[in-house]
Amino acid sequence: MASSAIETDGQEILDLEKNRQAEKAQWVLNAPEPPSLWRELMDSARETVLPHGKRFPYLKDKDGLFKTVISVLQAMFPIFSWCRHYNATKLRNDLLAGLTLASLCIPQSIGYATLAKLDPQYGLYTSVIPPLIYAVMGTSRDIAIGPVAVVSLLMSSMVPKLEDPEANPIAYRNLVLTTTFFAGIFQAAFGLFRLGFLVDFLSHAAIVGFVSGAAIVIGLQQMKGLLGIAHFTNKTDVISVLQAIWRSVHHYWNPHNFILGCSFLSFIILTRFVGKRNRKLFWLPATAPLISVVLSTLLVYLTRADKHGVMIIKHIKKGLNPGSIHELQFNNPHIGEVAKTGLIVAVIAITVGIKQFKSILHEKYTKSTLLTFILYILLLCQMQEATAVGRSFASIKGYSINGNQEMVAFGFMNILGSFTSCYVATGSFSRSAVNFSAGCETGMSNIVMAITVIISLELFTRLLYFTPIAVLSAIILSALPGLVDPHEAYYIWKVDKLDFLVCIGAFFGVLFASVEIGLLAAVIISFVKIIIISIRPGTEELGRLPGTDIFCDVNQYPMAVKNSKALVIRVKSGLLCFANANFVKEKIMKWATEEEENDSKGKRTVQVVILDMSNLMNIDMSGIASLLELQNNLASGGMELAITNPKWQVIHKLRLANFATKMGGRVFLTVGEAVDACLGAKMAAV
Amino acid sequence: MASSAIETDGQEILDLEKNRQAEKAQWVLNAPEPPSLWRELMDSARETVLPHGKRFPYLKDKDGLFKTVISVLQAMFPIFSWCRHYNATKLRNDLLAGLTLASLCIPQSIGYATLAKLDPQYGLYTSVIPPLIYAVMGTSRDIAIGPVAVVSLLMSSMVPKLEDPEANPIAYRNLVLTTTFFAGIFQAAFGLFRLGFLVDFLSHAAIVGFVSGAAIVIGLQQMKGLLGIAHFTNKTDVISVLQAIWRSVHHYWNPHNFILGCSFLSFIILTRFVGKRNRKLFWLPATAPLISVVLSTLLVYLTRADKHGVMIIKHIKKGLNPGSIHELQFNNPHIGEVAKTGLIVAVIAITVGIKQFKSILHEKYTKSTLLTFILYILLLCQMQEATAVGRSFASIKGYSINGNQEMVAFGFMNILGSFTSCYVATGSFSRSAVNFSAGCETGMSNIVMAITVIISLELFTRLLYFTPIAVLSAIILSALPGLVDPHEAYYIWKVDKLDFLVCIGAFFGVLFASVEIGLLAAVIISFVKIIIISIRPGTEELGRLPGTDIFCDVNQYPMAVKNSKALVIRVKSGLLCFANANFVKEKIMKWATEEEENDSKGKRTVQVVILDMSNLMNIDMSGIASLLELQNNLASGGMELAITNPKWQVIHKLRLANFATKMGGRVFLTVGEAVDACLGAKMAAV
Predict the structure, then answer these.
(1) Which of A198, A491, A531, A593 to mutate to test the interface with B (most CBs of B within 10 A)?
(2) Alpha-carbon span A651 to A645, nearest angstrom
(3) In chain B, count of helices (H) and strands (E)?
């Protein structure tokens, strides 16, 4: 009697358990309909353009018109925020930082202008207007704005295809200015319409490879100045450049240039070592380029070395930026090409300016622990509006870098730059680091720098007449090692082999073809990688983890135990689609039948194949057709197919295709339930 | 005392539970290293090329040399298998089917040859050699081999770009034969090296769209014959063709052709209805084209209608296929283009031949229940070797279609075809259906058909002199409705909107541009779709299903309950990479901080963010960097980040990047454990 009561109890529990399982299976089958494609598209578009619902959250404060205007102005021109709390101490620090910055900026600007195949003064112009505008509109205080090496290389490798800088320098310059205008427009548009994610399409690995390759190309370009070569190639790939150098060295070779360049290069590198040893002497490496320029100019002037073949800058036009709004070429037949170049330059300038800068900050402050914390907060807020989030962290962070506002600032500085004879400016890697080390407090250091450059333009251009080009080359060369990053490349290799492929694709593309091909290679490899990972037809067998009801990959968790009668399989990709469905089907069939084969050796008999769908984000028509075939194939072999944990989109499509009914209800929430239910049913049938 | 004992017990159980959880977390963290990229590549290459380990499984039977040779021959030439059991009954059925097939094949072949811009006899040639070779080497018994409409259209739209068929018909024909040769080489290579998966890259939706578009284009091309237009356009897009028709109709219009064509078209369609009503009259629709040809030829001959503007075939060259091996043009300057065309034709021919055929089988037998079962078995075995699997199902299936052997057979029939004046042949949709309805038993029906065509070529070509072209057009037109499949298109629309986009992309591409652009559009949309689905930066919040420890999407399972202190989030894509990592990070931050915002209204305070990684197949450098930023951002907001159930590749990379240690051990196997552990720790801290 008692035992029968227990049995009844057991039966009841079993029934209860069964009912619960059935209920859970119903949950899976009767999920509400997922949002339609159209609604999803609209939602994601809205989220992209309006990440926090409102453009100007200050408006809700209802503090009257005046305060509202002030708030809007503060959001658009962050200078209004920080200048209210500006004081003498900050000014002193900014003055020091700005002057240090200017001493590095002036020789670099001249060098980068020659790299971009423009007259030297255009580099100086670019160090005037963009930093001033950035100081007003930008949100970062450490970034130093001006011409940079990678963007200058980009200009000198893409624009000369449209106009020869030697044959027609004015037309070339006008195209460069037009490109700058377009770059500015694109950057401002990215910021205003929150399209910053487009910049994400250049992955970290691609940037590392691209910048390293560009640095080497830039270095090789400097051989022109360092060796005093008059006629150089217009191409940027390593082979053409090396050929040009080889040819020149054989025909014409002036050791004076080389000796001068190398000695000052050694000097700059030496000061850098000294600066690293003694943190107090941080100004020494920063001012070394200016000291080199002054010393070498004096040297050439005194020895009249220019008569002996040392190449010098000669004339630099005196005076402030001339207006250039009428020089923009909108009727040019190459306008499409120019706009394309503008887009590429815009993306690279943002990437180099914001992203690289982010990474140096990151590097620097893993060392100085106090600042780490503050700077992570900056990064945290980079992509967020000055709303609730911004406010709730305001007490810790002091200020926030706003990604979209940054892009708007970059855009405006380049648009207005293109009206005032500037080419594309962005955040410089080497100068931002100097700015930070010099202890800048606000954007004022950029203003100080710009004013210093203005004074130089007005007063000192004639003094630069005898500056040897070899020393400019040495200055550019000395800035390059910071761009090549073998450690990061090794780290990428260690963690992700395919990402490393992207990295070296960009690197060799830039090195042996052109900057465009390098970028294209990186983007294509990145997307091919996504496709390969998404459609690779891998499957894994799952086993039960001892003591749990959890099923895991038996390779990842060697302690997992396979079921002797149920083959539990999970697809190793997020998509079951035309490109992998057939393969997966085949593989599962092979697995099921091979396992069965081993039966004769007394191993196992598969009665149920359970397909865990928890990985699958989506499925297409071919995927559904394959599942159908799989089920029929298994059925004809006397096996059953069950599916578990299909995601929203998947179960929705399976329902639409009537697959769920064709499965005969063998749809479960968890693998454990599927195993119990299917094997239980089989047992009962026997 | 007692209560303290209970407490101690409770404490012990708690400790035990904690130990178990710690052990499980260790399982996650100490997973063995996943196979390297190189090993994975090698494994998948080996699996692709050698899906079942051995090429000829028969070899292991150790039955002596003779039996081995027989087995190998049987594997390569399935005819040896079935002809051993051949008998008179089967022959009678095959004879009937073959003759029915021939009566449909002869008019269709002539029509398709004119569609391909070749002389009529080339269509007949193509119905001789390829079916004979297929009968020897192919594994399917229902398929009817010969020229088909879609491939003929492909030829006439791609090859004329290289050589004008009107100006230089012989050079054009030679290029068509060379294309056929290349198509055969590619098909045989696909089969021998098991590259059939390349054909999968044309998804089901793409084929439906492409074939429907092609059918409409073919139909419009037939207006030439139906209206008796002498000068037609070489282009295939709808607009050019409609313009050509419009122009011709205005200038020259012969109602005799049109009336003749339309009356016989009506006749053929009528017989089809009769055939559908009365299954015994299946031969009526199959022979209607031949009847039409005979009647119309007689009519034209008797009335001498050709004198009144009715266009007739005129001369068809008598006699068997001439050799054409010397006509292949390997020194042609367009050889690269020809090879490319060959590749496209090869893929389309396989797709149309095998895949479409698969789908009619599927359609047909959902109606006749008995055969359904058998035919699913065929499909089951389509991609499998005649090994274990094949053998274990041998008793049910009777025979198996072997995908790779099929492709080899297709390849050889086209290679040998190109040596004997045939252009590309494949399985015909309409004729295969007729062959099946007529009750064919083996590949013998193809042989019977080929012999009938040979006899016709030898004896009856002169009788076709007066056959009106309008009737040929009517016959082609009558075969088209089977190719356009609005039901399938609607089904695709219903189940998968993006797949429908692929479908209409192919459809409109073929219709308004060209067949190549249609195919290209389909392939590109398909892959863009994969990329979009893989990188779309969706996230979903998880809640606990009542009465379980399972966490599910709160939208899919509305009964799931959110935790008030833990925000459980899962990424809705299989990859966390450069293209979506930033977005996902931002979204999670927004979520976490917005949830916190609602605190003032008394809703919830997020203390822990748990990121369920069970979806993620892989992660890249940018993804890892984003996770790191996310953790630091959350930490500065006083929240904790925990991750659960990372997959093999993901945990491996996180370990390499030292992220696992930076997480401070907050890596768990299940969401439930993570919630308990994190909130428990928080409680203890309070």
Answers:
(1) A593
(2) 9
(3) 32, 10
Q: Is A32 in CB contact (< 8 Å) with chain B?
A: yes
- A25-36 in b/e burial notation, b at 16+ Cβ within 10 A? bebbbebeebee
CA distance A52 to A516: 36
Q: What's the pLDDT tens digit per position in A443-479?
A: 888 999 999 999 988 888 888 888 888 888 888 888 8
- Nearest-CA neighbor of B323 among B422, B447, B410? B422
Q: Is B237 left (phi over 0), alpha (psi -120 to 50) or beta?
A: beta
> Which residue carries 């250039």 as its tokens?
A324
Q: What confidence tens digit (pLDDT) does each residue in A26-35 have?
A: 777 777 777 7
Q: CATH classification of B2-31+536-685, choosing from 3.40.50.1450, 3.30.750.24, 3.10.450.50, 3.40.50.720?
A: 3.30.750.24
Among residues A434, A443, A428, the alpha carbon closest in space to that of A364 is found at A434
* C-beta atoms of A615 and B618 within 8 A: no
Dihedral sign of CA atoms A449, A454, A456, A459 in order: negative
**A674-685 b/e (C-beta count within 10 Å ≥ 16 → b):** bbbbbbeeeeee
Nearest chain A residue (CA) to B201: A579
Nearest to B662 by CA among B677, B676, B643, B679: B643
Which chain B residues touch A361 with a CB distance below 8 Å? none
- What does the pLDDT read at residue B617? 85
Cβ-defined contact of A579 to B203 (cutoff 8 Å): yes
Question: Does any CB of chain B come closer than 8 Å to the CB of residue A367?
Answer: no
What pLDDT sits at residue A597? 53
Q: How far is B571 from chain A (nearest CA, A)?
A: 10
Closest CB from A531, A545, A621 relative to B530: A531
Q: What is the CB neighbour count within 10 angstroms for residue A155?
A: 29
Lowest mean pLDDT among A64-73, A373-382, A649-658: A373-382
Q: So what's the pLDDT on residue B423?
A: 92
Chain-chain contact of B633 with A590 (C-beta, under 8 angstroms): no
Domain ranges (residues) in chain B? 2-31+536-685, 39-76, 79-530
Task: Name the stretches of chain B with pLDDT < 70.
Answer: 1-11, 13-14, 17, 44, 46-64, 68, 71-72, 194, 196-197, 252-253, 353-403, 595-604, 683-686
**In chain A, whose CA is at the least distance from the CA of B536?**
A44
- Cβ–Cβ contact A629 with B under 8 A: yes
Contacts of B544 in chain A (CB under 8 A): none
Window 383-422 of A: residues touching B by CB (8 A cutoff) are: 383-384, 388-389, 392-393, 396-397
For the whole prediction, is pTM greater than 0.80? no
Name the minimum distance, in Å, from the CA of A74 to any CA of chain B: 23
Q: How far is CA B29 from CA A572, B24, B223, B612, B654, in A?
A: 20, 9, 70, 15, 10
Q: What is the ipTM of this complex?
A: 0.76
- Alpha carbons B417 and B421: distance in angstroms, whole number: 6
Quote the CA–CA distance of A600 and A153 in Å, as a whole number: 69
Q: Does domain A536-685 have CATH number 3.30.200.20?
A: no
Amino acid, single-letter form, for residue A581: A
**Could you tell me which residues are beta bridge partners of residue A551?**
A544
Give A581's contacts in chain B (Cβ within 8 Å): 200
pLDDT digits (tens, 9 = 90+) for B108-144: 899 899 888 899 899 999 999 999 998 888 877 778 8
d(CA B506, CA B517): 8
Q: Do B615 and A615 touch (CB under 8 A)?
A: yes
DSSP annotation of A663: T
Chain A nearest CA to B334, separation (Å): 28
Closest by Cα among B375, B658, B626 to A197: B626
